[in-house]
């Protein structure tokens, strides 16, 4: 009797508990599913993005041998700096010390016998450089550096160099993985003999022997205007379009302007971009995020940091081919980003991007030595003191036969009066 | 007694609610598994079975690397014709067609051993050592050898391939040959997508009909474009599948750099096994 008496309430309790449990799980489920699908979508979009370490990676590799002889190394089948970076990713327990140095002994440290030097086109903060070397370098003082030297000895030290104030920093790590790096630079490389020197108080790479460089061809792609209108102005409702003879200008209600000139150049101006720090590290991080959102991932693969101007908060990225920058695609490089008056953001870039490499079938081009270059510039009336940089670079030139085919010819670009110019054009034009 | 009746009524109602909730719960959890798996390529490949698509090969999901290669499609083959013996040769559009004056008997069990040896003779075929037996493309009546490069095989009858014609009574009657000269690396190593991703994208482009059987997914170098006789080759995931209504293998190409589908003209390769 007693047991029978309890059966009904017991069953009822079970039914109530089960219904509670089921409704609870149903309520929780959709939220759970939402969160997981979000994770997945960010993951898949990251697959295509080029990491920050690629954009802010060194571009030039110089090998100093036991004998003190130096060579610029290039490799047509792999990207040397990326491969060396991968060998350094496991650097652990970095210990930071400053080495006493000055203008006189700076070069001695740079030219350490039996070592490899990685050069940046311009000074970068160590926080940014740590993306390329090893995440463990993030905690080190955020000094700005131009060069990294890895001696091939058992010291497990690497050296960082700042050209601007001749500072040398020694970083001790648990293992510099010399073997791994040696293997990368021994396979299949082309070596051009050079000598590091000091000219006008700055380190300078002297190509003292004449050498040849290959020419390249590319098919270019002209991205549609719509692509950038949707990327940059998509959140605006009221976009006005004005068509002029030489350009098309889009404006929106948030005082943003996007203008396309007929030759393929694009200007974007945002007068309320939100908070953008003028701090170099923050600014370079923000610009990387901007360009990786803006550009097609194919395009981003060739793009490297080229120059940062702290006075004007301006950063320039260029297309690179086999470790050498491409000039004259536009007046400024591949992309230029600038903070105007610390409040407005301005981008300049081009609709034309490198797409598919094509064989040129042309012979390698012979390049003169840097000495001959400087002499002939002097003979044509140029003031050697106004020359602040010489770059071995590629000239972007359109071909007559096709709109979409361009050739890249190796040549010297000279920074004269703050502007890069092809030396052959300088010689034919004369100083102005 | 009244209280007992109320209890019974409540029990019935709650059991009904439970049944209803349970059915909702099952539907919901089913939905959940379907959606949360969307991102993973292996899961999508598993789900392809819902469309009766079977995937025979095991596919890697990790990314790999490849090169842009360049090659020259010149008349090297025609220049070496004189070295060939026992053959009647025609040459047009960079393709050499040869018929043996006296057909060669392939009577032992495996054609491949005999052909591998013959490929080394320059009186039998020119540049024979630069080709490799291709089991994916070979059938009973046509045995295919693909040209090797420093980083994988070439694909396409017009681009570095030898196809032997074998009669039903095991006689090697002739072959067609194409050859890519001067294959070299055009640009440095670049990341490419995984074979699993290539298959998933092909599936998501709706290019695989229901009831298909994926036979193989392999990385080849195929022509992207040509400028005069210069050819640009890119790493391509080539996917072969059979459909329910035909035994012939349909071949699709996916650009391994960006996952785009490459035009499928003349991509059907008929087989008779």
From TrEMBL, chain B:
- Name the InterPro entries for this protein: YycI-like
Q: Which residues cross the membrane?
A: 6-25
Tell me the ranges covered by the Regulatory protein YycH-like domain, including all copies: 33-257
Has UniProt tagged this entry with the keyword Cell membrane?
A: no
Membrane as UniProt keyword: yes
GO CC annotation? membrane
Pfam families (alphabetical): YycI (PF09648)
Keyword entries, A-Z: Membrane, Transmembrane, Transmembrane helix
Question: By what name is this protein known?
Answer: YycI protein
Which source organism does the UniProt entry give?
Apilactobacillus kunkeei DSM 12361 = ATCC 700308
What lineage is on file? Bacteria, Bacillati, Bacillota, Bacilli, Lactobacillales
């Amino acid at each position: 009797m007693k047991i029978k008496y309890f059966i009904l309430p017991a069953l009822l309790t079970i039914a109530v508990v089960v219904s509670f449990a089921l409704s609870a799980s149903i309520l929780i489920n959709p939220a759970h599913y939402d969160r997981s699908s979000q994770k997945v979508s960010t993951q898949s979009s990251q697959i295509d993005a080029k990491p920050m370490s690629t954009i802010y990676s060194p571009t030039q590799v110089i090998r100093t041998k036991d004998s003190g002889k130096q060579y610029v190394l290039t490799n047509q089948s792999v990207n040397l700096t990326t491969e060396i970076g991968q060998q350094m990713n496991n650097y652990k327990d970095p210990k930071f010390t400053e080495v006493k140095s000055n203008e006189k002994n700076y070069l001695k440290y740079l030219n350490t016998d039996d070592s490899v030097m990685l050069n940046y086109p311009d000074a970068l903060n160590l926080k940014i450089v740590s993306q390329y070397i090893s995440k463990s370098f993030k905690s080190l003082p955020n000094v700005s550096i131009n060069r990294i030297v890895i001696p091939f000895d058992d010291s497990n030290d690497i050296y960082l160099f700042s050209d601007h104030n001749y500072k040398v920093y020694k970083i001790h790590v648990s293992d510099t993985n010399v073997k791994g790096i040696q293997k990368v630079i021994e396979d299949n490389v082309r070596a051009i003999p050079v000598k590091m020197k000091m000219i006008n108080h700055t380190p300078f790479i002297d190509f003292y022997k004449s050498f040849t460089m290959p020419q390249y061809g590319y098919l270019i792609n002209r991205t549609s205007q719509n692509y950038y209108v949707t990327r940059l102005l998509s959140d605006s409702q009221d976009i006005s379009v004005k068509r002029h003879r030489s350009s098309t200008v889009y404006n929106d209600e948030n005082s943003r302007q996007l203008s396309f000139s007929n030759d393929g150049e694009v200007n974007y101006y945002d007068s309320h971009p939100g908070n953008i720090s003028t701090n170099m590290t923050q600014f370079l991080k923000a610009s990387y995020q901007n360009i990786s959102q803006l550009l097609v991932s194919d395009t981003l693969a060739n793009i490297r940091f080229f120059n940062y101007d702290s006075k004007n908060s301006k950063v320039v990225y260029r297309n690179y081919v086999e470790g050498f920058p491409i000039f004259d695609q536009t007046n400024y490089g591949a992309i230029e980003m600038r903070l105007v008056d610390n409040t407005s953001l301005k981008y300049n870039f081009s609709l034309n991007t490198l797409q598919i490499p094509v064989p040129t079938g042309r012979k390698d081009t012979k390049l003169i030595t840097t000495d001959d270059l400087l002499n002939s510039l002097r003979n044509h009336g140029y003031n050697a003191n106004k020359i602040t940089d010489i770059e071995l670079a590629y000239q972007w030139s359109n071909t007559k036969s096709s709109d979409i085919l361009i050739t890249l010819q190796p040549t010297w670009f000279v920074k004269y009066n703050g502007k890069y110019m092809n030396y052959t054009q300088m010689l034919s034009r004369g100083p102005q | 007694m009244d209280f007992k009746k109320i209890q019974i009524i409540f029990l019935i109602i709650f059991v009904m609610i439970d049944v209803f909730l349970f059915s909702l719960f099952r539907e919901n959890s089913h939905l959940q598994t379907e959606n949360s798996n969307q991102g993973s390529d292996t899961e999508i490949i598993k789900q392809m079975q819902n469309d009766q698509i079977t995937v025979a090969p095991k596919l890697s999901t990790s990314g790999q690397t490849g090169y842009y290669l360049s090659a020259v499609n010149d008349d090297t083959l025609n220049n070496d014709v004189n070295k060939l013996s026992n053959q009647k040769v025609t040459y047009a559009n960079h393709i050499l067609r040869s018929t043996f004056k006296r057909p060669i008997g392939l009577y032992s069990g495996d054609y491949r051993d005999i052909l591998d040896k013959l490929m080394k003779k320059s009186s039998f075929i020119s540049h024979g050592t630069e080709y490799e037996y291709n089991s994916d493309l070979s059938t009973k009546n046509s045995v295919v050898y693909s040209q090797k490069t420093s980083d994988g095989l070439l694909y396409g009858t017009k681009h570095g391939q030898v196809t032997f014609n074998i009669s039903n009574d095991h006689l090697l009657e002739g072959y067609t040959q194409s050859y890519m000269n001067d294959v070299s690396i055009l640009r440095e190593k670049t990341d490419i997508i995984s074979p699993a991703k290539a298959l998933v994208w092909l599936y998501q482009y709706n290019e695989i009909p229901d009831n298909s059987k994926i036979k193989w997914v392999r990385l080849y170098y195929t022509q992207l474009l040509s400028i005069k006789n210069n050819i640009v080759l890119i790493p391509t995931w080539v996917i072969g599948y059979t459909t329910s209504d035909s035994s012939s293998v349909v071949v699709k190409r996916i650009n391994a750099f960006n996952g785009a589908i490459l035009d499928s003209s003349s991509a059907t390769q008929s087989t008779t096994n």
